[in-house]
């Protein structure tokens, strides 16, 4: 099998990574030889965590998965994928509401690069309500999110909100 078919890119904001993302990464790591979790360096979305913080949290949370690596990118995902010789993009689908946006993105990416294929992986049932946004909101209001995020994230969330 050519190398490009063994490499999958999982792009996202991961602001911060949640147990839902992590579950998807773990499942994908059993299917593909290598999974790159690619953090979007967007300036427009005004993330709570810097790109470096987001990457550190993902690295810590995936340290037991030898075939998973962490990177960041800006600009077009298709360019990033091409530069790394990857042809597979992974995206998670939690509910029908995700599907419309994800499909639009996938079709646009295929329009930009016919070599690139997007694979949708359904979220695990127990995480299908979980998003980075809701974790940030609950944590900011003092709610317990320890069951929703890895330990590396929990500590930083508490620290971030105590400094706000
Ligand atoms: P983006 O800003 O690109 O949507 P996110 O970090 O919010 O980035 O999500 C990255 C990908 O992970 C998206 O495909 C999203 O649908 C998926 N995802 C988010 N939360 C979960 C979850 N709880 N379970 C499975 N997939 C998820």
Folded structure, characterized:
The chain has a five-stranded parallel sheet with strand order 3-2-1-4-5, sandwiched between helices. The protein has helices spanning 19-31, 51-61, 77-83, 96-112, 132-140, 151-163, and strands at 7-12, 34-40, 68-73, 88-93, 117-122. The termini are far apart. Strand 4, helix 4 (96-112) and strand 5 (117-122) form a beta-alpha-beta unit. The mean pLDDT is 93. With 164 residues, it is of the alpha/beta class. The chain has six helices and five strands; from the N terminus they run E-H-E-H-E-H-E-H-E-H-H. The longest helix has 17 residues, at 96-112. Adenosine-5'-diphosphate binds next to helix 1 and strand 4.
Sequence-ordered SSE layout with sheet pairings:
Elements: E1 7-12, H1 19-31, E2 34-40, H2 51-61, E3 68-73, H3 77-83, E4 88-93, H4 96-112, E5 117-122, H5 132-140, H6 151-163
Parallel strand pairs: 1-2, 1-4, 2-3, 4-5
The structure holds adenosine-5'-diphosphate.
Adenosine-5'-diphosphate binds next to α1 and β4.
Q: Identify every distinct bound molecule in the structure, by name, code or SMILES.
A: adenosine-5'-diphosphate
Q: Give the DSSP E fraction (strand runs of 2 or more residues).
A: 15-25%
Structural class: alpha/beta
Spatial order of the strands forming the largest sheet:
3-2-1-4-5
Average pLDDT taken over every residue: 93
Helix/strand order, N-terminal first? EHEHEHEHEHH
